[in-house]
Structure formats: C-alpha cells, structure tokens
Amino acid sequence: MTLKALFKSLKKEGIDTDRMWSSIIGVVLRSLFCLSSHPTIKPEPNAFEIYGYDIMFDADYRAWLVEVNASPAVSCDSEADVKVKIPMLTLTLTLALIGHEGQDPDANPNPNPNPNWT
C-alpha cells in the first residue's frame, strides 16, 4: 500500500493526515540535521544520496523513525513500487541533472507538500 492510499483511507476515518505528513517531515529533517552536523561527513558538490526511511506511527499517529537506509532498494517488483519509485527517481534525477538554475532562490522547489509518490 502506498502512503497516498493509506492517507486516503485514514482521511475517511477522520484522521488528520496533514498532521501525520508534518510529523514525517519533522522526523526526516531532524535525521538530516544530525547527518549534516556530523564532523566527519562532508557533502560532495558533484554527488547526491537517496535515503530510504522506515517510519512507524504510534496510537496518536505520531511518526517515529525506525531506520534510515543509505542504499534503499529501487527495483520495481510490484505495482506499488512502480507508482512510488519511478516518479521519485525521475524527480531526483531531474533535480540532480538540471537543478534549480534560473529559478527564484526563495521559491519553493516542490510547491506540493504531498508529492505524487506519497
């Protein structure tokens, strides 16, 4: 089941999925902050990473980090994989190869807070 399908089902039950999404974003940003402040890990200007996040929710729908995968599987073995991974890889490669040249630096690069791969 994709995150989009899960959120659709939970919305029908009256669950605040926007709050859940914000909780996921918070978990991801805090983990990246830890990585960015690590003294021995330096960013490479001509490289990028894709991380895979395993997140679970408690009874109050608060996100908790289970693990971060530095080399997540990107093979497409199911219909859900195709729906999630192809758009994610397309956007990742577009950003890596083209970037935001010529765009307003203050503009939100992803105006949709719930991207297609959710």
According to DSSP, the number of beta strands is: 2
Give the overall shape. globular
Gap between N and C termini: 10 Å
Structural category = alpha+beta
Strand order in space, largest sheet: 1-2
Radius of gyration: 16 Å
Q: Sheet with the most strands?
A: 2 strands, antiparallel
The sequence of SSEs as H and E is: HHEEH
Mean pLDDT: 84
Percent helix, as a range, is 40-55%
Question: What share of residues are in beta strands?
Answer: 5-15%
Query: Which regions have little confidence, pLDDT < 50, spanning 5+ residues?
Result: none
Separate helix tally = 3
Structure description:
This protein is an alpha+beta fold and 118 residues long. It has a domain at 3-74. 42% of the residues lie in helices and 11% in strands. The protein has three helices and two strands, in the order H-H-E-E-H. A two-stranded antiparallel sheet has the order 1-2. The longest helix has 20 residues, at 17-36. The mean pLDDT is 84.
Which keywords apply here?
118 residues; alpha+beta; globular
Annotate the secondary structure layout.
Layout: H1 3-12, H2 17-36, E1 52-57, E2 63-69, H3 79-97
Antiparallel strand pairs: 1-2
Quick take:
This protein is of the alpha+beta class and 118 residues long. It contains three helices and two strands. The protein has a domain at 3-74.
